[in-house]
Amino acid sequence: MEISLDDVGGVSVVTLKGRLNVTTTAELEKVFSTLLSENKTKVLLDFRQLEYISSAGLRVLLAAAKQFKKVSGQIVLSSLAPSVKQVFEISGFTSIFPIFSTRDEAVKSF
């Protein structure tokens, strides 16, 4: 999995490419830890290039959402592929994370 990080108008945009599973979650956990240590509280996960997410990936996202909530932060998601969106719907995560169709809509939501 590849992770890139950008700043768009004060929003930390984390773009994921590939598969988020048990072998790649540690990379994403490090990114979340870094953002928290830098007091970055507005986080957008851009999933347009994410092909797959496992239950381990969902656990990392849930843990991060709780950590950011403690510091009045928020994680929003954008551009979910149909297969990834289906995983979020089945798991009930659509009620945990605001999900937007496009990156621009997600950035404007902050």
Fold and architecture overview:
- This protein is α/β, with parallel strands linked by helices and about 110 residues long.
- It has one domain: 2-Layer Sandwich (Transcription Regulator spoIIAA), CATH 3.30.750.24.
- Helices cover about 40% and strands about 35% of the residues.
- The chain contains four helices and five strands.
- It has helices spanning about 25-35, 55-70, 80-90, 105-110, and strands spanning about 1-10, 10-20, 40-55, 75-80, 100.
- It has a five-stranded mixed β-sheet.
- β1 and β2 (about 10-20) form a beta hairpin.
- α1 (about 25-35) packs parallel to α2 (about 55-70).
- The longest helix is centred in the middle third of the chain and has 16 residues, at about 55-70.
- It is globular, with a radius of gyration of 12 Å.
- It starts with a strand and ends with a helix.
Task: Itemize the secondary structure elements and their pairings.
Elements: E1 2-8, E2 11-20, H1 25-37, E3 42-53, H2 55-70, E4 74-78, H3 82-91, E5 99-100, H4 103-108
Parallel strand pairs: 2-3, 3-4, 4-5
Antiparallel strand pairs: 1-2
Helix pairs in contact: 1-2
Percent in strands: 25-35%
Low-confidence stretches: none
Structural domain tally = 1
- In spatial order, strands of the major sheet run 1-2-3-4-5
Identify the CATH homologous superfamily: STAS domain
Q: Helicity range of the residues?
A: 40-55%
In the CATH scheme, what's the topology name?
Transcription Regulator spoIIAA
The radius of gyration computed from the alpha-carbon positions, rounded to a whole number of angstroms, is: 12 Å
Q: What is the level 1 CATH name?
A: Alpha Beta
Number of helices: 4
Number of DSSP strand runs? 5
Shape: globular
How far apart the termini lie comes to: 27 Å
State the secondary-structure class: alpha/beta
**Overall pLDDT metric:** 96
Order of helices and strands: EEHEHEHEH
Q: Major beta sheet, specifics? A: 5 strands, mixed
